[in-house]
Amino acid sequence: MTSSYDLIVIGGGTAGNGVARMAADAGWSVASIDSEPHGGTCALRGCDPKKMLVAVTEGVEWAENMKGKGLEAQPSVNWPDMIAFKRGFTDTMPPRIEGGMEKAGIDVLHGEARFTGPDTIELNCKTLTAKHFHIATGARPMTLNIPGEEHLTTSTEFLELPERPDRIAFVGGGFIAMEFAHIVKRAGARDVTVLEMADRPLGNFDPDLVEMLVEGTAELGIDLRTKAKVAKIEKQGDEFVVTVERAGGTETVTCDLVVHGTGRVPNIDRLNLEAAGVEYSRRGIKVNDAMRTTNPTIFAAGDCADSGLNLTPVSAAEGRIAGKNLLAGQDARQIRYPPVPSVVFTLPMVATVGLSEAEAREQELKFDVHFEKTQDWYSSLRVGAKHTGFKVLVEEGSGKILGAHLIGPGSEEQINLFAMAMGAGQTANQIKAMIFAYPSYASDIGSMV
Predict the structure, then answer these.
(1) Considering all CA atoms of the chain, what is the largest pairwise distance in Å, rounded to the nearest integer?
(2) Do residue 113 and residue 157 come from a single domain?
(3) Domain finish residue from 281, 303, 328
(4) How do residues 11-40 score in pLDDT, each as one tens digit?
């Protein structure tokens, strides 16, 4: 390890690794630092491992939906085997990623990096300097400032649980809480409770479709409580007691595990950004459209920056822009976000892209709302899905798609087709004119617009 580099990347996930590779390929001396094994949240502690657990529980859901239709088996989930299945992927990623980076000539380092000046950091009691830095430290669980917060289990820890808890409570009703609640309930947990402060979970998704998901969540046996503010968490012997404030008074939930699911914030607290002359806010590190910070030699991208949506493909896109501008020595490229879809991987899945109905009305746009529940459509009947539907906003006059919101099997792929159509400026009539393979989930799209 040397002490001086052309580029030091802080963060070994999606928003950082590509930048390190680009610079190394251009002949720069590069170091990549992470306090954890390289791979980032998505590959190791988030999207990918979570969806592997969902894949297992899909088997339970499929069998339940096919009951009485010819499929007689009723599977159950072996939690340790499921976690081992997940680790079969996550355990292989860091050595693969770090080995590939080292082969490319990148110094792979571990530890907590802290700026001590505009071009210096401290790492493991050593000082490193660089001509340029790229920050891609991602996000961390939000601090709740409630008594007993230390008893919360993080999403990272949840994904490593050696045994399934029988009684579990989730604080918050966002992506993490809803997805994990569905996983653990289908895996056989007896009591699963979701505690959401707002009027409904998944506040960024269409309320009509969320209402359908709430119905399915209740049918699954999950206790979803809204307008529920967690006041404190107490450990009593081997169990936890969560005190919840609601309009009707104070309630308690007794459980074996309490999981943090209230959301994440930029992971920048320990970087000492002031020493580097890098401005930041609660939303993250301040960057321009070229992903350059207020220190012109330092770039940032992904969940730690005050930029686009906190989604893995957005982080990758921002990293590419940062890397190109680093190599160009100027702001040659600016980030331009296409329609970005996102999905909640509950069962049923909920997907969205573009404007919500409320946002479109706030912008005083004129549009038609195509909203329908589709449990009687062939694609739903074929797989026994009960809670399915769509809401598509079509602009009057132009016929362009302003937003698409879906719930049900196949929605995680249908939404990508909507995103492609919106990015290409296709109209509803042009989508209707397309010929899709039939019968398929894609072939339903023409009937939604």
Answers:
(1) 68
(2) no
(3) 328
(4) 999 999 999 999 999 999 999 999 999 999
